[in-house]
């Protein structure tokens, strides 16, 4: 069968038919989010088993919201990002593609990027309206924005409040919280996504941290008309505070957590007592092993979201964060299920493989038109996976149509690897809860553990960990459980930059021949020598901090003594330094 390009005519015709059908239904008065409509839309795009595919209609136009200066963001230049038009070549990412992701190629100075959020507001020359940030209530602004847009959402969508909902588990609650039997299609969509930013008590907040969080809230929750909500999920490290034993203990811990006043109304606390209460069959709850358990419980107790991004404090979006996440979500939605896991194992390096459509063709050729994962990857411990069965027994019968238009249950931000083929991975033997006869189940890890998961997936993981004690390390949790359950996984081509971009050996260690060098459609084993960690997106790297310092015009010791010049990612003109549009991690303050 011919392989369509990612945005090819076949798919556009298909999506156009869906859109026309949606308008037809709307004209005849059917509620836009009623179950009847969801069934018909799904049935239009599929046949037989594929009636399980859920394709949701676009939401109505966003209603502008009020920002921290008391003005509508659509009318306030002081709340805006100030983009620059400079005559400089745009840096080509080492991995990923702005064009294929649908991401704007913007330039900004530090003032243009963070001026709206307090950058240099202590200086006399600050040329925006100043804000008393301690009087800002981001939770209130988010909720007023959602209320202004409430008519756009289904009834299942609710505003987020941080009242103490999360509870310790007890025997009486056991049956009422068992959710694993619910299938993927039985969750009523809310059309909202939570951006869960992880924090912890004792953290020393720097101005840069607050510029970042303010920008995240304004550019996602407020600019989207409530499609996103930012939540600050804070780890109370002192278990002796017993925050879930009484409302007073919880309130006292919240007061003592040293959380900036502007963020308190979006803060939710957790501690290890909570994890031990819900997951007694798993002995290790440290973040390196179970970083998603707090988010699982947040998804359980806060059902007003369809998806939950898990973010770290040391992330940065160098362009508009909301538009970036919209682009990532749209790409994942329009990606087919077929060979999606195989594609996650290969880097999209433009000068090696061309466009993302070219990468798809190369991966398809390496797999001879088939796929290693087609529907749930069955394991004995999960006899009833919640995902849909595939539309045909043989993946070669699918012309890259299954899953197109369907929101991904997992969006990863980096490549994935097959654990059984990765002898270098530190946690390859860490598996819990499995019988000796199945001590090495199929698993996939995607570092770092910054991913988006659907509520259906989070609750399926919660159920398996609570009842059976099934556990894999943090970087493997979401993609592995998704594969076991037959849920959709996507790795959009987000732009990364490599510090040593001219080092051919380094580039080849990451590329490793690509799909053309694969004997079976998967990427080969990890190299014996781990490539240098000079990446803008990785679990450990000093390069992002170096870029930020140069952009802020700060002097710090560079991570590479030979590289004291301006990082090539940045551009300089008339004494100003400009940064392109991409995301970075980690950026330590």
From TrEMBL:
Keywords: Membrane, Transmembrane, Transmembrane helix. The chain crosses the membrane at residues 12-31. Pfam families: DUF3405. It comes from the Eukaryota. InterPro entries: DUF3405. This is Biotin synthase-like protein. It comes from Pleurostoma richardsiae.
């Amino acid at each position: 069968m011919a392989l369509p390009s990612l945005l090819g005519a076949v798919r556009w015709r298909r999506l156009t038919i869906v859109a026309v059908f949606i308008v037809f239904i709307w004209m005849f008065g059917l509620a836009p989010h009623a179950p009847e409509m969801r069934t018909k839309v799904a049935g239009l795009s599929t046949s037989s088993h594929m009636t399980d595919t859920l394709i949701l209609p676009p939401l109505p136009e966003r209603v502008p919201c009020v920002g921290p200066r008391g003005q509508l963001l659509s009318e306030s230049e002081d709340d805006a990002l100030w983009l620059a038009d400079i005559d400089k070549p745009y840096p080509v990412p080492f991995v990923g593609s702005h064009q294929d992701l649908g991401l704007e190629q913007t330039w900004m100075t530090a003032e243009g990027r963070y001026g709206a959020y307090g950058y240099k507001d202590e200086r006399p020359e600050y040329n925006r309206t100043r804000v008393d940030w301690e009087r800002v209530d981001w939770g209130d602004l988010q909720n007023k924005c959602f209320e202004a847009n409430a008519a756009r959402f289904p009834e299942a969508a609710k505003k987020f409040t941080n009242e103490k909902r999360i509870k310790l588990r007890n025997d009486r609650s056991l049956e009422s919280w068992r959710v694993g039997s619910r299938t993927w299609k039985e969750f009523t969509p809310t059309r909202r996504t939570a951006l869960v930013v992880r924090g912890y008590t004792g953290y020393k907040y720097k101005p840069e941290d607050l510029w970042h969080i303010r920008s995240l809230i304004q550019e996602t929750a407020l600019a989207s008309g409530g499609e996103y909500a930012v939540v600050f999920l804070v780890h109370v490290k002192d278990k002796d505070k017993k925050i879930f034993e009484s409302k007073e203990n919880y309130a006292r811990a919240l007061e003592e957590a040293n959380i900036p006043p502007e963020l308190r109304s979006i803060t939710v606390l957790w501690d290890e007592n909570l994890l031990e209460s819900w997951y007694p069959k798993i002995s290790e709850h440290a973040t390196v092993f179970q970083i998603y358990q707090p988010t699982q419980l947040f998804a359980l107790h806060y059902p007003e979201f369809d998806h939950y991004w898990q973010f770290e404090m040391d992330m940065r979006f160098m362009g508009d964060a909301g538009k970036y996440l919209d682009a990532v979500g749209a790409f994942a939605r329009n990606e087919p299920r077929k060979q999606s896991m195989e594609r996650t194992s290969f880097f999209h390096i433009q000068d090696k493989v061309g466009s993302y459509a070219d990468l798809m063709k190369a991966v398809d050729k390496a797999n001879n038109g088939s796929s290693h994962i087609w529907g749930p990857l069955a394991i004995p411990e999960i006899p009833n996976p919640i995902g849909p069965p595939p539309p045909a027994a043989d993946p070669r019968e699918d012309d890259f149509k299954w899953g197109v238009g369907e929101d991904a249950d997992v969006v990863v931000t980096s490549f994935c690897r097959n654990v059984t083929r990765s002898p270098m991975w530190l946690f390859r033997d860490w598996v819990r809860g499995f019988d000796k006869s199945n001590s090495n189940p199929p698993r996939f890890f995607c570092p770092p553990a910054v991913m988006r998961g659907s509520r259906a997936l989070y609750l399926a993981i919660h159920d398996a960990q609570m009842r059976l004690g099934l556990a894999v390390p943090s970087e493997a949790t979401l993609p592995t459980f998704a594969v076991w359950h037959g849920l959709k996984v996507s790795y959009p081509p987000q732009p990364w930059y490599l510090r040593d971009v001219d080092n051919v050996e380094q580039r080849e260690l990451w590329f490793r021949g690509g799909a053309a060098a694969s004997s079976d459609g998967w990427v080969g084993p990890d190299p014996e020598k781990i490539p240098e960690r000079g990446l803008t997106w990785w679990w450990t790297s000093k390069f992002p901090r170096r870029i930020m310092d140069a952009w802020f015009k700060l002097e710090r010791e560079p991570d590479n003594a030979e590289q004291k010049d301006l990082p090539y990612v940045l551009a300089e003109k008339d004494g100003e330094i400009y940064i392109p549009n991409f995301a970075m991690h980690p950026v330590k303050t």
